Amino acid sequence: MAVNESVRAAGIDLAHIVREIAKDEVSAELQRCPGGLTEKERRILDMWPRFEDGELVMPGDKVHYASAHNDETEIEVESITAMDGYFVLCDDECRSNQYEQGQRVKRPAPKVLDADGVEIKVGDTVWYRSLSTGDRMRKATVTGFGEHSLDGPLATLKDEAGGTWHIDPKKITHTRPDSWERLEEDACNSICGYFGKGVSECDDCPANAIAANSDEFECCERAVKLDIVRRAKALAKVEVAE
To answer: What is the 3-state secondary structure (H, E, C) of 134-184?
Structure first.
């Protein structure tokens, strides 16, 4: 039976009670004063799920979620159901967490962002720079977030040689860095393929901005040549704009 249903049968307005206790400034005074709550209200408060810091869990709160079936790491509580010895938090898509009575609820872990503001997730392919790599970016796979520094969590990465590294997220990017090898590969690609497009997929193509004043085919061909020169200058650490 849902908590709201059992309490409604007892003639108690649970939503009002919990909201008053959890969210209002009256909360501290009510809990300090023995006469502030009835026995039924206090039992309701004692059984209500709480976060690890003691705050009451309410519909609309986000809680930690772990599932082998998807990559979601949090759910937004839609309903709270109390059973005999345990309770269940469920969202509007029927994803749920089950807890023993009295077990504290974890909040979602804060998102870890890379140098470009993109969230880093376990399994992501990323590139990183560290003291051991100097200016060179190295490819790796994210395996976790086990270590911490003064600035927050470090991403645990496994590189292509099998080495494990704990790296500051600000030194990580999801964007594949350019290289002479990559430039050579791209130079042998088709005109449309160079920009990651199929034939006649002209919408939002970078070629439009690079060489906008030429005929269509000449524009695309010229755009590829200009971009190859730009990338080569950047790789050679020559100013692109002279």
So the answer is: CCCCEEEEEEECCCEECCEECEEEEECCCCEEEECHHHEECCCCCCHHHHH
Nearest to 75 by CA among 57, 101, 100, 53: 57
Cβ proximity of 30 and 22 under 8 Å = no
Could you tell me if 57 and 48 are in contact, meaning their C-beta atoms sit under 8 angstroms apart? yes
Residue 9, pLDDT score:
41
CB atoms inside a 10 Å sphere around CB 83:
12
What is the pTM (predicted TM-score) of this model?
Answer: 0.52
Query: What's the residue count for the chain?
Result: 242
Instruction: Classify burial at 44, counting beta carbons within 10 Å of its beta carbon; exposed 0-12, middle 13-18, buried 19 or more.
Output: buried
Q: How far apart are CA 84 and CA 112, in angstroms?
A: 38
Q: What is the mean pLDDT of the chain?
A: 78
Residues of the chain with pLDDT under 50: 1-13, 15, 24-26, 29, 239-242
Sequence-distant (6+) residues with CB within 8 A of 114 are 120, 126, 169, 170, 172, 173, 174
Quote the tokens at residue 165: 């590294």
